[in-house]
Design goal:
Blueprint (H helix, E strand, L loop, with lengths): L2 H9 L15 H8 L7 E2 L4 E2 L6 H4 L5 H9 L18 H4 L2 H14 L2
Antiparallel strand pairs: 1-2
Helix pairs in contact: 1-2, 2-6
Length: about 110
């Protein structure tokens, strides 16, 4: 599902504000969109095609949640091959609530299985 459509569903947009059960959106999509992750990263489950950072479906494939979390909160420590450090903000641990971070990690983990 393209990111804009997912964001619209997440926001409850539509004719009557209701969405069918089949269009349920993972709560991590909302966090992904709110923090602009798709502007830098490609991630097919979010419909994102960013090219500044790595394609997360490839670089995080099979990674446990702890590794994904560290890649978000300490990106310089786990930069992907071919990508330098310093491009990804280092303050996501402060920008996101613990709940948001948990949701984003769960979304990324689900999409990289």
């Amino acid at each position: 599902m393209p990111l804009l459509a997912a964001a619209a569903l997440a926001a409850g947009c539509g004719d009557d504000g209701q969405r069918p059960a089949s269009a349920a959106v993972h709560p991590g999509v909302r966090v992904w969109a709110a923090h602009g992750c798709g502007s830098c990263h490609a991630f097919a489950p979010a419909g994102a095609t960013g090219t500044l950072g790595p394609d997360l479906r490839r670089t995080l494939r099979g990674a446990p949640a702890a590794v994904i979390r560290r890649a978000i909160v300490d990106p310089s420590a786990s930069a992907s091959r071919g990508y330098g450090t310093g491009a990804m903000p280092e303050d996501y641990a402060r920008r996101m609530s613990r709940r948001e971070l948990d949701r984003l990690v769960a979304f990324l983990a689900q999409g990289t299985r």
